[in-house]
Design a protein that fits this description.
The complex is a heterodimer. By secondary structure, chain A is mostly beta strands. In chain A, about 10% of the residues lie in helices and about 25% in strands. Chain A is elongated, with a radius of gyration of 18 Å. Chain B is an alpha/beta fold. Chain B contains 16 helices and 16 strands. In chain B, the strands form five sheets. An eight-stranded parallel β-sheet of chain B has the order 5-15-14-12-11-8-7-6. Chain B has a two-stranded antiparallel ribbon with strand order 1-13. A two-stranded antiparallel sheet of chain B has the order 2-16. The longest helix of chain B is centred in the last third of the chain and has 25 residues. The chains are: A mainly beta, B alpha/beta. At the A-B interface, helix 1 of A face helix 5 and helix 7 of B.
Chain lengths: ~220, ~450
């Protein structure tokens, strides 16, 4: 395992190392991140990175293939635009967690702030705590699973992303409705919980999705625009 | 017949209102029939102060000209010299503006790449991501980073030559976009990750940052992903150019792209295009002043767009302090947009060549703003690229002609002192004297 102390080294050197890591350097440990921004961004190989401490903005941004675990909390935009791989946050996440993510899985053990999964495009996001307002806004595809509560305007202007929530929802956003939980959805959740070793009954969650009333401009929907 | 007329009494001539003119009354009738605003493509059509309101003085006794057919006039420009390890080296200071695959056909995007490459300049992606054809045919390709992030991925970030963070657009500063469902075929839908045939909204704000302090960190992330190699542009609409330029520089831009209200869009509300934002001419001097006050004029390059039509416009923009210009509408016209040879088809669409702007409908007879395979087949991308390259060459020659006449051996050496203004408004806006005087309104 390679160990990099960010309090003594440069961010550029760290990211350069991670971005060019080869098969002999698949395991990295970053010490004392001290809230730095843009740690472990643009990774493009199946390496494992453990960050011991909390990070600033855009940790694991645009990740592809890598597994990145943060033993702390993260600032805004963790795993933004992730393409594949896994990002695990042991603490809480600030705004825009998983924003515009295309793929991969983001797991947040604590809470996520507002706009979690905004404009998501295929990513899976599992939040074991609660999410803030406008989460899932304009979500195009992918899945947002929340094991506690959701704030204001959940799933506003949703496209085809699916949202599952176990707790209370303050209110649903425009064009977001509760949908039938079919067998394939229960199966998906059971598989998710099993793979992440989470003790949760899938039947306790409800599913939300787009009513698809805003997909093409319609003057009769004027009050929603 | 009135009794006055019967009695041969002179009549008052019927007068149509100058404000309730034919276009205005037609629009009122259209709105009354539909209950919805008008959507169209293109930029502002109304008359506003423009480059036509400026003239070059040329040389005489007090200035020494250069020989037009012998002495050189350098047109090269490097973009992104502030922080990027690999600035773009352009042969000419005219770039191709961002236009999306989706709004434009694949053939049109290919033609733009081909033409730009022949001319030694860059072209730009748009909202919808990068196509392989576009990358393959563009020697220098600027990758737009837009609020929608349609098609955004790190592989394309790494294979582009520069990144343009789009904050605003001249046609609609403060507005997002909408690609209507009729232009969303299978390929466009797949690239954007949405179902076929639905309206695709492009957000007006970025999803993961707000304000210049956040943007500074976002740019750090983009630089880290691309190893600090790629120039980072920030594109702003012509809203508050002094402050917006200052903040773009603060956020870390290598290049500021400033788009005035004549800059085109694929589609938005007509009321937005015509009533929000400032004319291109009015935006340049405040932006240049911002750069000068930061001691970064020329170190952070300024690209101006919105209504650039010929070499004189290029030369005037550069004389006012821009480093380069960008063209969109003019490039489309060079490819064949609004060509009179399609007049019958324009008539069938209820319009005429030169006025066609329903680009959102995807019925473009010229095969440019469409995804219809039959229409797209009308545009030969090789021939289109050649036409664009010819046009860029002609524009450059025109600008050089003017620069030499002003005694300049380099286009970037043109300066405000080479200009005079034809109108009081243009003089006040640009800070160059009114023709025949040494008067600049508000200054002396």
């Amino acid at each position: 395992m390679k160990i990099y102390d960010l309090s003594e080294g440069e961010l550029r050197a760290l990211n350069e190392n991670l971005q060019s890591a080869n098969e002999n350097e698949t395991s990295w440990q970053i010490e004392r991140p001290e809230g730095a921004h843009a740690i472990a961004v643009g990774l493009n190989a199946p390496i494992e990175v453990t960050i011991n401490g909390s990070t600033g903005y855009y940790c694991a941004g645009m990740n592809k293939h890598a597994t990145i675990k943060v033993n702390g909390s993260v600032g805004p935009g963790v795993a933004e635009n992730m393409m594949s791989g896994r990002v695990i946050v042991e603490g809480d996440a600030s705004q825009y967690a998983g924003a515009t993510g295309h793929g991969g899985r983001l797991i947040i053990r604590g809470n996520a702030s507002s706009r979690c999964g905004i404009s998501m495009k295929g990513i899976e996001i599992l939040v074991e705590g609660s999410v803030g307002h406008m989460s899932g806004f304009m979500g195009q595809s992918g899945k947002l699973v929340v094991l506690e509560d959701a704030g204001d305007s959940l799933g506003d202007s949703l496209y085809e992303a699916q949202i599952f929530v176990r707790g209370k929802i303050k209110n649903l956003g425009v064009d977001c409705v509760e949908k039938e939980m079919r067998a394939e959805h229960l199966q998906y959740l059971e598989n998710l919980f099993k793979s992440e070793k989470i003790d949760c009954d899938a039947k306790e969650l409800k599913r939300y999705g787009s009513a698809r009333k805003l997909y093409n401009f319609n003057i009769d929907n004027l009050q929603n625009y | 017949m009135s009794s006055d007329k019967k009695n041969n009494i002179p009549q008052t001539k019927p007068i149509k209102s100058s404000i309730f003119n034919e276009a205005v009354t037609a629009e009122i009738r259209r709105a009354a029939a539909t209950g919805i605003y008008d959507i169209r493509g293109g930029g502002a059509k109304r008359h506003v102060p423009h480059f036509d309101d400026l003239l070059f003085l040329g040389a005489s006794m007090s200035r020494y000209p250069l020989e037009g057919y012998r002495e050189s006039c350098d047109t090269q420009i490097a973009l992104g010299t502030r922080f990027a390890k690999k600035p773009l080296q352009l042969d000419i200071p005219i770039t191709i503006a961002g236009m999306s695959f989706g709004a434009l056909s694949g053939s049109a995007k290919e033609a733009l790449g081909r033409g730009a490459t022949i001319a030694g300049t860059s072209t730009t992606t748009g909202d919808g991501g990068m196509t392989d054809e576009e990358r393959g045919h563009s020697k220098m390709l600027v990758y737009q980073y837009l609020p929608s992030r349609y098609g955004m991925n790190p592989d394309d970030l790494r294979r582009c030559d520069a990144i343009e963070v789009v904050v605003g657009q001249g046609a609609k500063p403060g507005g997002g976009g909408m690609l209507l469902g009729q232009k969303i075929d299978a390929r466009v839908a797949e690239m954007r990750g949405l179902p076929e045939g639905i309206d695709q909204r492009s957000a007006c704000r970025h999803p993961d940052w707000t304000g210049p302090d956040d943007l500074e960190i976002k740019i750090l992330e983009l630089r880290e992903i691309t190893k600090w190699e790629k120039p980072i542009y920030i594109k702003i609409g012509g809203a508050r150019p002094y402050f917006d330029t200052t903040l773009a520089v603060k956020a870390g831009a290598d290049v500021v792209v400033l788009d005035g209200m004549q800059g085109g869009t694929a589609a938005t509300q007509d009321v937005f295009i015509e009533h929000v934002g400032q004319p291109t001419l009015a935006c340049i001097r405040p932006a240049v002043r911002a750069l000068q006050e930061l001691n970064l004029h020329r170190e952070v390059q300024l690209i101006v767009s919105g209504g650039i039509r010929h070499g004189a416009d290029v030369a005037k923009a550069l004389a006012l302090g821009a480093d380069a210009v960008s063209i969109g509408t003019a490039a489309m016209i060079a490819l064949g947009d609004n060509d009179p040879k399609w007049e019958e088809e324009y008539n069938a669409l209820g319009t005429t060549a030169g006025a066609y702007d329903d680009w959102q409908e995807g019925k473009d007879p010229a095969g440019i703003t469409t995804q219809d395979p039959d229409l797209e087949a009308r545009l030969d991308p090789i021939l289109g690229g050649r036409r664009l390259a010819n046009y860029l060459t002609a524009m450059t020659l025109e600008a050089q002609t003017i620069a030499r006449a002003c005694g300049k051996s380099r286009l970037q050496n043109l300066e405000p002192e080479d200009l005079c203004a034809l109108t009081v408004e243009a003089s006040a806006i640009t800070g160059v004297p009114l023709t025949g005087t040494d008067w600049i309104p508000g200054r002396n």
